[in-house]
């Protein structure tokens, strides 16, 4: 089976309404956190910083120490089953303006409950719920 590895981050910013979380709309239609494939020689956190910059234009990222978790799934591409693992961190930013790349259709900043409802996949929701318990 083909194996794929990505790294990503739940990103939040403080607003007058409390913490707002960033979700992206992927080309296949799902809503998920910022993530991307790990390039050779990168640490997970280097991947995350690069992907955040490329996919959102955000550069002022601070990692919240102590949170690291993983989402796993299978999907099919060109008739091949791919097993994918995505390592996730938690980080915050003071930037609200997002500059999307060609890789996504849309973005949104949502409260915890709205973001939980918007996330397409149960596995991502499960990871996100652990953040509320922090
Ligand atoms: P990356 O952001 O890591 O470069 P990508 O844009 O290539 O990823 P994914 O978001 O991993 O692609 O989506 C690839 C396929 O897996 C899509 O068909 C998507 O619907 C599906 N998928 C994405 N996340 C999950 C998940 N948590 N559970 C199950 N299937 C998922």
UniProtKB/TrEMBL annotation:
The keyword Cell membrane does not apply. One of its GO terms (biological process) is AMP biosynthetic process. SUPFAM superfamilies: Nudix. The lineage of its organism: Archaea, Nitrososphaerota, Nitrososphaeria, Nitrosotaleales, Nitrosotaleaceae. Transmembrane segments: none annotated. It holds the Pfam family NUDIX. Keywords: Hydrolase, Nucleotide-binding. Residues 2-133 form the Nudix hydrolase domain. GO terms for molecular function: bis(5'-nucleosyl)-tetraphosphatase (asymmetrical) activity; nucleotide binding. The keyword Glycoprotein does not apply. CDD domains: NUDIX_Ap4A_Nudt2 (cd03428). PROSITE patterns: NUDIX (PS51462), NUDIX_BOX (PS00893). Belongs to the Nudix hydrolase family. It comes from Nitrosotalea devaniterrae. This is Bis(5'-nucleosyl)-tetraphosphatase [asymmetrical].
